[in-house]
Amino acid sequence: MTKKPIASPAGRMLHARSAMLARGEPVAPPLVMASMFHLPGAPDAVHQYGRMSNPVWQETEEALAILEDAETVLFPSGMAAIAAVFHTHLKSGDRVLLPSDGYYVTRVLAERFLKPFGIETELRPVAAYANGGFNGFALVHIETPSNPGLDVCDIAAIAAAAKAAGAATVCDNTTMTPYGQRPLDLGADIAIAADTKAPGGHSDILMGHVSTRDPARAALVRDWRRIAGAIPGPFEAWLLHRSLMTLEMRFDRMCSNAQKLAPLLAGHSAVDAIRYPGLPGDPSHTLAARQMQRPGFLIGLTFASEAMAEKFIDGCALIQPATSFGGVHTSAERRARWGDAVPPGFVRLSVGCEPFEDLKSALLAALDEAVE
Ligand SMILES: *Cc1c(COP(=O)(O)O)cnc(C)c1O
Question: What is the pLDDT of residues 53-63, one digit of tens each?
Answer without folding.
Answer: 999 999 999 99
